[in-house]
Amino acid sequence: MKTAVRDYKELIAYQKSYELTILIYRLTETFPKEEIYGLTSQIRRAAVSIPSNIAEGFMRGAKEYAQFLKIALGSAAEVETQLSLSKDLGYCKSEDFITAQALTTEVLRLLASYIKRVNERLNTSKKNK
């Protein structure tokens, strides 16, 4: 029997998105200086938004949690797009891109799964009322 998660830090999506954020910060350290207020800032903010929204949403009710997870999902999609731009502009090495892209894909998959489960719980609780 599964035990209830009591702390957002136990969530795999949180852990993986936190890991992704650290990776993005390290990856962007080598971006051109003229991108500091452009792509560097944008991808970092999007990455930070993912675990931040998971954490904030976890501390709220289920309906709000689902909404915060959707925001995190959108931020992960932003990171995915910005990673592709970074690679195509020659700002990151192929192997770094592959690692970051794989982690981003995993985060997207986890978030989509979490959203589905939270929505199923919401629908079940509505039917039981």
Question: What can be said about this structure in brief?
Answer:
By secondary structure, the chain is mainly alpha-helical. Helices cover 76% and strands 0% of the residues.
Brief descriptors of the model:
single chain, 129 residues, mainly alpha, de novo design (two linked rop proteins)
In terms of per-residue confidence, which ranges show pLDDT below 50 for 5 or more consecutive residues? Answer: none
Instruction: List the domain count as a whole number.
Output: 1
CATH superfamily: 23S rRNA-intervening sequence
Strand content: under 5%
Main sheet characteristics: none
Along the chain, the helix and strand elements come as: HHHH
Q: What does the average pLDDT come to?
A: 94
Can you name the CATH architecture? Up-down Bundle
User: How many helices does DSSP assign?
Assistant: 4
Shape: elongated
Which class do the helix and strand fractions yield?
mainly alpha
Q: What Rg do the Cα atoms give?
A: 16 Å
Number of strands: 0
Report the CATH C-level class: Mainly Alpha
How much helix is in the residues? over 70%
CATH topology, which one? de novo design (two linked rop proteins)
Report the span from N to C terminus. 25 Å
